[in-house]
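Thought: the user wants the 3D structure for the chain below. I'll pass the sequence to the structure tool as-is, report back what it returns, then summarize two notable features.
Action: structure_tool
Action Input:
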Amino acid sequence: MGMGACPFFLHFVNKPEPTGQEPVPESVRAYFFSPDGPGENTFIKKKNWYIIRMQPLRTFPYIPLKIPRYKILKRLGYQRRQNEISQRMMSEVDKWITYAADHIHLKATACIRDIQIDHANGTVALERSDTVFESAGFSRFLGKADQLLMMGITGGQAVADEIKQLQEDKKMTGAVIVDAAASEIVDEGFDWLMALFNKELVRERKALKLKRFSAGYGDFDIRFQADVYHILKMETLGVAITETCILVPEKSVTAFCGISKVTGE
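Observation:
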């Protein structure tokens, strides 16, 4: 496995056996915490070694598409036991779902950050950062988590352009189906990212919460999406953010998951 695929990198600094609680050498700390350093780090002292655990921003330029057909139909209002759709109509729906998938290019950035939760004041602070999210709902959602998986994903410009074009051409059936399909396919992209990180976290006896939380939900003000956008460097995905903190193109989304230590056997 190449280094780019690893959940973290290990950098070893050999030095004589330290006496007492000797701090990490300043030369080592200065490099790894510098603006040009390779990422956020946690120093772990182990005998005469310093293990420097880095948690850099990770980029996923291509995420495989999964088409959740039933979820798309449900988003469109279809209930299996209550609605009947003719074969002709179902064929039309499937055509537009395929059309949507053909115009989606899923890509994402993600990182894991250490956090401090203040449940009394309803805040979540990112360690080694000035960023503090103010939301009682978000702090309750995270519970006893001590880390946060931050994710930003986009379906790309092409599908957003197609939805707009279909609307302008008054092809409203196609526009509605493509919009619903794009939303659900992007959501499946989050599931793919979470499964990947969860597999890696198992090695550290940690696990992700199964549910996600996003800025703009409940009392978690949408203005915090600007902080998330910059932390995740979503401009590298071709995503912009408006003055009202809306991501552009459409079908670009951010989300959080809490990470907790696994207790017991």
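Final Answer: Structure generated. The first strand starts at residue 10 and ends at 14. Residues 172-201 form the longest helix (30 residues).
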